Amino acid sequence: MGFLTILIYIVLSFSVGTLLVIIPTGILNFMNAADYLNQNILANFSSSATLVLIGLIIILLCLRYIQKMILSGRQNKNISLESKEGKVNITVMAVEDMLKKMLEERDEVSHIKVKVSLKKKIISVQIKGYLNYEVNLVDFTKEIQEKVKEKLGVLLGEDKKVTVNLQIRKITMTDKKEKLENPEIPFRHYE
To answer: For domain 80-177, is the CATH number 3.30.300.20?
Structure first.
């Protein structure tokens, strides 16, 4: 979302909210406000024209934002592959699910969230998760990034450029041996 769009929505929301507070309390009398507008602002052609132009600009910006949302939603949902046999569309959600399942097989990470986005010819993968064991972060993240790139290269072909960003949100220091020897039994403390 652009800065100008956010600013317009904040101003409009604040204005509507203020009106909804002022009207029931009786602070603003509509008859007095209408008389003031007619005598001071609407009587002057340049003031009226300025208000109309500002209103039209706001409406056009809002329509442009809605158009942009609709078009970006349609374009960024599929990855298209073409071969001499035909065209294949793979949804971004399918790629995200595949990568999540691949990463969940590893004991070192948990609470994994994968987001894939498309920007022109670049496939950007954002992976967030918890690190369960004490590992060498540089080697581990490099290994994960390489495996994700390799998996996407096999699936989509080597011609697609893939960037992988990994975010470790939390490090929980549990011992591997302890987890394997003493698995947690659900509801074991209940009688």
So the answer is: yes
